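Tutorial, part two.
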Amino acid sequence: MDLFENALEERFDQYAPLAARMRPRTLDEVIGQHHILGPRRALRALIESGDLSSIVLWGPAGSGKTTLAHVVSKATKAHFEPMSAVTAGVADVRKAIAAAKDRLAQQGQRTVLFLDEIHRFNKSQQDALLPAVENGWIVLVGATTENPSFEVNSPLLSRSLLFRLEALEEQDLLAIMGRALEDKERGMGKLDVQVDEDALAHIARGTGGDARAALNTLEAAALISGSSGRIDVTAAEEALQRRALPFDKGGDWHYDTISAFIKSMRGSDPDAAVYWMARMLDAGEDPRFVARRMVIFASEDVGNADPVALQVAVAAHHALEFVGLPEAKLNLAQAAIYQALAPKSKASALAIWAAEEEVSADGPLPVPAHLRDSHAAASRSLGAGQGYENPHAHGGYVDQQYLPDAKVGRSFYKAVTGKELELQRQLEEKRRAAGPLSGR
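Running the prediction step on this input gives:
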């Protein structure tokens, strides 16, 4: 059996795709996922302790779920049993569990059952795993691209530790491809391939944080480059089947494109807004950056003219984290179109900027006595809270001084359009009904 496995491994090294050959064998070879694999982080500590525990790995394709399952089994010298929820049934699960029990009883070796796409298992199939996980006959490593809170049974999820993997950063993909180009044993080091930096950057941007896709594209680009031995942007474009758009995250194209995106929303042009968004995402811009800019825009350029704009932008940001690309492009596009269609007002932004200027110019002016905190007896004895009228005792509104004495009569906020004009009119009606107040 050992001779067969050795021969199989040699054939594997010869014919397997680059992504499979370059799969990390140890924890130190893993690049990325610092939030769970960095020093003193939870998953690293668990693996290094050798104390096996069932885990569920949730993350996008190519983020390292299968790799971590292999690393767990090798680090703990456990038997690795891979299984795909797409093709396996309850009978396969029971067979693997029986073999794991025999292995544990006869050899004292534990079994890591790696169940890829665990979310594809139905309730009865997942239930078949429960006794084995609960009794320690197997160590389950489940991998899923879907939210396990919805797709994995609660009893099974409660017996496992959940780790969220993120799409790899562009610098992580560059490091992974760089290692593959240098590795003479498993990678492309023997080929002496020369790669243009622009070509590597294009592959990294175009593969959406997927290490497997990046390595497979790199290998395809090397084949396309042929006898020249040089991978340029043209070869990378052909391998990726995506044209390299000029977009430099640290250069003019970055700032010009995001500026065009923001100005298109401000100019109420939904078509231009989604076009510039598509340009940024296609060129590899971090979608979280795009989402953050819309959250800012919703308050800076729309404000209370349409308060729902902020809710839509924040919801799109949450949806991006919840769903991930490519589907979250739909959420981002919806938010961008809403921002473009919404009435525009800078009133909120101008108000805070004007207030900041006066705070900077005049310093910390004293709080009027009737507005000071009066919970403590000592504060009350010094006049804190005296004369304060609670609006709730007057039907929800009472006209009294709220600004410092030196700022009485100063106005920072001026409504412009939309919902904020309606709110402003309501406030003015309340003030007229209450009568004039010099301290407002």
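The chain has a mean pLDDT of 85. In part three we will examine how such features are distributed along the chain.
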